[in-house]
Write the structure tokens for this entry.
Amino acid sequence: MKPYLQVENLSKRWGELMLFENISFTIFEGQKVALIAKNGTGKSTLLDLLAAKDSPDSGIVTLTNDVEIGYFEQIPDLNPKNTLLEEIFESDNIKLKTIKDFELAVSENDQKAITRISAKMDELNAWDFEVEIKQILTELKINLVNKPVGELSGGQQKRLSLAKVLINKPDLLILDEPTNHLDLEMIEWLESYLEKSKATLLMVTHDRYFLDRICNEIIEMEDNRIYRYMGNYSYFLQKRDERIEMQQATVAKAKNLLRTEMEWMRRMPKARSHKAKYRVDSFYELKEKASQKLKNENVNLSVKSSRLGKKIVEIKNVSKSFPGAKLIENFNYTFSRFEKVGIVGNNGTGKSTFLNLITRELSPDSGTIEIGQTIKFGYYRQDGIQFDFKERVIDAVNKIAEYIYFEDGTKMSSSQMLTHFLFPPETQYNYIEKLSGGEQRRLYLCTVLMQNPNFLILDEPTNDLDIMTLNVLEEYLQSFAGCVVVVSHDRFFMDKIVDHLFVFEGEGVVTDFPGNYTLYRNKVQEEKEKTESKKTGQDKAQSKKETKKPDAQRKLSFNEKREYEQLETEIAEIEEKIRQLEDLLNSGTLLHDELFVKSEELAELKKHLDEKEFRWLELSEREQQ
């Protein structure tokens, strides 16, 4: 395989924090690689270095000649003054420039330009490319081509940036959290697109289904070292556990041996001549190995929740609209103790509005929402991070509580709690502005859970959290002694947590589906296949009907008119015979053999009647034309 990108002894420091040191790896042509690491270890920084957006402190990044990189960043690098069309086709590629001119001519209905550019499109064989571009834009719901980029929402800009990278068809795709700000249908489309794509891929993602189905290799960055796993996410989990188990066994063995060697070092100071130097050197190597820290931290989230009363939340005939958008109409639901509800639906169908209605941050247009007296909400929002970035991590937590109480009655200091949230003591006194985006999200989650809620509302909690934190959050939510309502585009997370779904279908329609996300998608797919099958059958019938149309449109001949008139009489006679036979069969006077013969006769008469009626209907339609 041809090496596309080589990393040799790369190091990068962020202030006093060493992100990674002397790491090396190679990306080969055709590979689809995922990069996994804890938040704050420099994943996005590493991608910036690979895309030449930043410089390393030391080490070399080598890109093979003529290999083109397409980089999708978490914060889009777009020109706010460009229109959407200008931004999409900002490229030196002659095909893209021609397609841009063609789309502009179509949007302005310039027929002369359309004719002229169409000839050039033929010459460049660009029509298939144009169709693919339109598919990408349609699937990512990008329209309004003349709208300035600066007027787009954050989510729209992210989708535009992703479309731009895909459309340019680079040799090496580098994607940093590509599924954030995409709805579930978009994620499934992107998953299918990348799975079929021949592009070499390196990506960071927390979406484990996405990762499992696309990637054939995983690079794990931990303790300034690189571990490679030649398989998907499921394979990675298995082999990572084996690696940690082996490391633990090695460290335990080294500690046992170290005790023996320490006794020798103490007892025989005079024996440390040049003859024993090898053993002294071996002792210090052994000491280093035995003192290795196995960073297999878990985030302990068994925080005590407030007592939950009988009445939780009751929603009665609630409706909510905004100008031009009907979001919820006559919705009714009564929450039960300990239930876990997932919310799915396309962007703009009212999911976040629903959460704000429950917490009374919005008022319904009609209907009522009654909240139980014991309910204490914990609300994790998409845009809820409101820290003072000049404040230290420990001070932000102390504002909420200096001690946190657990189910078993024990308590923990805020500093100890932060340590459980993977903020070691040296990090706790850092300023919040120095934390990565993922670390800020983790700190925000910590502050929400520390408030002792019994009704958790989580709006996209998985965005920017690393996989390790997500696994532990899932375990916590599964054992959480309260209600949970979660909006998430993370299918793995939803499957693991929720009991049922509120499906926001648009136009105010909200349905309650009894199952997790995978069951819901399977049902949607089944219904789609049935509809397509039915449509195919209707199309065939229509085609058959249209084939016969010339005959059907022909007026009745003289003989056909006579047949049509006679059929009415014949049908009436057959119906009378059937009635008489049915009376006879029901009389109870027939012997067994007679009963059999008359039954056969009745079946034949009914068949004959069907044929006569069908012919009568055919002639009747033509008679009325």
User: Anything to note?
Assistant: The first strand starts at residue 3 and ends at 14.
